Amino acid sequence: MEAKITCFHGSKEIIVGPLRVSNRGTFGSGYYGGDLACAVEFCGGDDADLICLEMDIKNPFRYSANFDHELDFDSPAVDMINAIFGPEEQSDVLATAMQSDGYFGNEVQERLLELGYDGIFVDYGEGAFESVVFYPDQIHHVSTHTLEEAKLMLRPHATKGPAL
User: Fold this and answer.
1) DSSP-based three-state secondary structure for 73
2) What is the pLDDT of residue 29?
3) Could you tell me the pTM of the whole model?
């Protein structure tokens, strides 16, 4: 099932050129987008930009974010790591993240590609979501907004996540 997800990417600076890949992130390496409220929160100043994107994901790994786990690690990705890696690999991947910056690298992307997925859709509930794609050709720039414009976009309605 192919999904075209409209999402937003907030930046702490003015965005010049194409969106850059995150080598490490909450859900591994990739190109990140999310709901409007999340992107506005991530913007880091009056000069920051927010871009509206469409992401093409043919086979997303669908995941409901969960912070309830036994590890002393404040990450919504723990259950996803446990779902896609075997027991020994889980321990290694989680330990590496916990002992460094708290993020995951390309090991998540590589595993999901092996399993036939080309992106991730994370549902936080109540319309909040995050999506990650693995290739730049999966991203289509729709529009660019200043932080102030994005805040105005939030006023008239609550953000709703895409139906998948």
Assistant:
1) coil
2) 96
3) 0.85
